[in-house]
What we know:
The structure is a single chain. Helix 1 packs antiparallel against helix 2. By secondary structure, this protein is of the alpha+beta class. It has a six-stranded mixed β-sheet with strand order 3-4-2-1-6-5.
Amino acid sequence: xxxxxELLDIxxxxxxxxxxxxxxxxxxxxxxxxxxxxxxxxxxxxxxxQLLEDxxxxxxxxxxxxxxxxYLNLVKxxxxxxxxxxxxxxxxxxxxxYIAISKGKVTVNDEDYYIxxxxxxxxxxxxxxSVGYQFEFNGKSYEIKDIL
Length: 148
């Protein structure tokens, strides 16, 4: 299942990049707070309150990104299921999905895949379904042709 591993790696790289960016931003904000503390005047206090808000936001974003990474670590690319589950590649008559996180469209080996979360509206429609299942989404009909 080399394709599954490639799609999983794309997801992991994306979330790892986000985690790194949040860590860098948190470090920058902490340095700015320390710098403002040394200056410490009336304007510095209001500046610090904004920086503290930004720090809290970025810590929350980091926490959420870490949860996404932990969730992705549950994906076992070697597992094959006849039903749509986390980590499945779902090929329909017109579009391909990879069930993992909400990421959007990617191209692997000249083929497009929409990386979606099982919690997304379309993920909920196809969760636990098997080959031959027909569904409608946004006014368009689909049929599951293959599950890898």
